[in-house]
Amino acid sequence: MTASPPPAFTPPDPAFETKVRESFARQPFMATLGAALGAVVPGRVEVVLPFDEGVTQQHGFFHGGAIGAIADTAGGYAAFTLFPPNSTVLTVEYKINIMAPGKGERLIAVGEVTRSGRTLTIVRVDVYVQAGEARTHCATATQTLICLHGKSDARSEG
């Protein structure tokens, strides 16, 4: 049995890519980790985390918290690509299964929307570790996100 291709989505905000990239740039935690955005297309976003000792655990593998953080971010922004202007995104819940050690030069988290609703969006995130030319599927997450209509995505004061 082969997996069906991801659904095609038409974003309600023609400036979705700019909106996502600007929002990501305002995240100090992603900057602290050293993560960067890769591809941003309707319903699909990649987040890349290069290897650094600061994001490892005691065995030298990428820390599970770093894997979870980029999975959460890739999924959140995949959902955000399909949100209308003048809205923002927040994670409601996610569950992650780490299936293989994160040992390599970088992690790549790929978030893909499964269902985009008016309020709640469901996303699947696959995380890969790349070592040389080899990519290993090291984690899968499922995530629920909420669209907050009429709320700015900019940092609120106070």
TrEMBL record:
Q: Which UniProt keywords apply?
A: Hydrolase
Pfam families recorded: 4HBT
Q: What range(s) does the Thioesterase domain occupy?
A: 59-132
| Keyword Hydrolase among UniProt keywords | yes
- InterPro entries in alphabetical order: ACOT13, HotDog_dom_sf, PAAI_dom, Thioestr_dom
Q: Which residues cross the membrane?
A: none
Q: Name one GO molecular function term.
A: fatty acyl-CoA hydrolase activity
- Source species, domain of life: Bacteria
The text of the family note is: Belongs to the thioesterase PaaI family.
Output the NCBIfam families linked to this UniProt entry. Answer: unchar_dom_1 (TIGR00369)
Listed name of the protein:
PaaI family thioesterase
Name the source organism. Xanthobacter autotrophicus
